[in-house]
Design a protein that fits this description.
single chain; alpha/beta; Alkaline Phosphatase, subunit A; Arylsulfatase, C-terminal domain; 10-stranded mixed β-sheet; 19% strand
């Protein structure tokens, strides 16, 4: 991985130095990151799925660039976000696992205070910074978003939250249960409430000690949560349109619990399976939320001053949500492509080419380095991302990355060029390695570990070298 250092001569009046960016010389560009939660690779219209229309998300790809090989830093929510926020492989600083439930309040679990987040970096060069939605980087006071560079915060700190609390008015709710009434298995329905045992466990206690807060104070939220986050995101843009801002909208859709608002459930009444229908309702609601954010940017005449990313935090959990990662193998928590390769796109009117598809591998870690360059922030510490602008504007024809590394306990992976090394059952002394050629086998169906032992050994050695740079887990 590269040590990225922005040199003074590289920062030329906030210009990207490609001759296509006079707009950025007037002021630092706004940066918006729209992060979906648990959205699978194969669910969007622009990714090839016609079942659930997503015109607003698709419009980002149509007016910008869609990445076909966009990766995140981890196969589930918290380490993935830690990577994006710091621009570093989270395992470098021990942020390896995904805290859930009461572990969110453990005073020893959270994004370490010494890590410099993208919000801190941008704040310190004049940006107003806001986080709307899910934090999941520690629920104790030490890790509060305000202490990690965010001027404003509206949302929650744990891994999930109900979109509507009991008695679940205005939505259809499907909850996981160990058993149905009568100690039965399967699916039980009563009005707009559905219980299902297909996952074999109960719905997590998402709302326990996990209020919606504004800043540091709990609030009572009346709206369906996706709509409430939309309200807060558009308000932030409207209030800060006169100055450079960084807005991180961390939706909790389409993460469980499965709750579809009535008007969206009606829209997808033709979908027979209510499980899939609820998911479709949640995704369409998310799409409209993205549309409202884009409209706010347009209304404030900020299109040519605003860089907008859209991506998911990890692959979709298919059995839980019905979310598709096709044509990729695996799902959330896996080191196969379906767990770590995600829908990813970016737009910036007048600067980034419109309607392009970028085929080289990139990473959510790159958002940090890209933002630093555009904002004129000097990075004097090691990060693993790179500035994407030379690549997506076409001035640099090489690949931004040759190598990616992931580790989460017994599961780990390395990608080197088109080769992928995976161990899904890694033991302390004896990993079980698989080898895939992604240029010919995007679905990871053909394990070549026994057929090409020399390539397998080469990648194992690369993995061992990178693994030696990583820290022990913090928790």
């Amino acid at each position: 991985m590269l040590k990225f250092r922005l040199l003074p001569q590289y920062l030329v009046a906030l210009s990207i130095c490609f001759g296509a960016c006079e707009a950025t010389q007037a002021r630092q560009p706004n940066i918006i990151v729209l992060l979906a939660d648990d959205l699978g690779y194969g669910e969007l219209g622009c990714q090839g799925n016609p079942q659930i229309p997503t015109p607003h998300i698709d419009s980002i790809a149509q007016s910008g660039i869609r990445f076909t090989q966009g990766y995140v830093a981890g196969p589930n929510c918290s380490p993935s976000r830690a990577g994006f926020l710091t621009g570093k492989i989270p395992t470098r600083f021990g942020y390896e696992f995904n805290p859930i439930g009461e572990r969110n309040e453990d005073p020893n679990i959270g994004l370490p205070p010494q890590e410099i987040t993208i919000a801190e970096m941008l704040h310190d060069v004049g940006y107003t910074t806001g986080l709307i939605g899910k934090w999941h980087q520690g629920g104790a006071a030490t890790y509060h978003p305000h202490r990690h560079g965010f001027d404003e915060f509206f949302g929650f700190t744990h891994e999930g939250h109900y979109f509507v609390p009991p008695p679940y008015n205005g939505v259809t709710t499907m909850l996981r249960r160990r058993a149905l009434p009568g100690n039965e298995k399967g699916r039980w329905e009563s009005g707009n409430l559905i219980y299902t045992t297909h996952m074999g466990h109960d719905e997590p206690d998402y709302d326990a000690n996990n209020p919606i807060v504004r800043g540091g104070q709990p609030v009572v939220e009346e709206l369906y949560l996706t709509d409430a986050l939309t309200r807060e995101a558009t308000s932030f843009i409207d209030r800060h349109a006169d100055k450079p801002f960084f807005l991180y909208v961390a939706y909790n859709a389409v993460h469980s619990p499965l709750q579809g608002a009535d008007k969206y459930m009606e829209k997808f009444s033709h979908i027979e399976d209510v499980h899939r229908r609820i998911f479709a309702a949640m995704l369409a609601n998310l799409d409209d939320s993205v549309g409202a954010v884009l409209d706010s940017v347009n209304k404030n005449d900020l299109n040519e001053e605003t860089l907008i990313f859209f991506l998911s935090d990890n692959g979709g959990p298919t059995r839980e949500l019905t979310s598709s990662n096709l044509p990729l193998r695996g799902e959330k928590s896996h080191m196969y492509e379906g767990g770590i390769r995600i829908p990813f796109m970016v737009k910036w009117n007048g600067v980034i080419p419109a309607g392009k598809v970028y085929e080289q591998p990139i990473s959510s870690l790159d958002i940090y380095a890209t933002a630093a360059q555009l904002a004129g922030a000097e990075i004097n510490h090691q990060i693993d991302g790179v500035d994407l602008m030379p690549y997506i504007t076409g001035s640099d024809k090489t690949s931004p990355h040759n190598e990616f590394f992931w580790r989460q306990g017994k599961r780990t992976a390395l990608r080197y060029k088109d080769w992928k090394l995976v161990s899904m059952q890694r033991h302390l002394q004896k990993p079980v390695w698989e080898l895939y050629d992604l240029s010919k086998d995007i679905s990871e169906e053909h394990d070549l570990a026994n057929q090409i032992p020399e390539k397998l050994q080469e990648l194992i050695e690369r993995w061992e070298k990178l693994n030696s740079q990583m820290s022990e887990p913090l928790f």
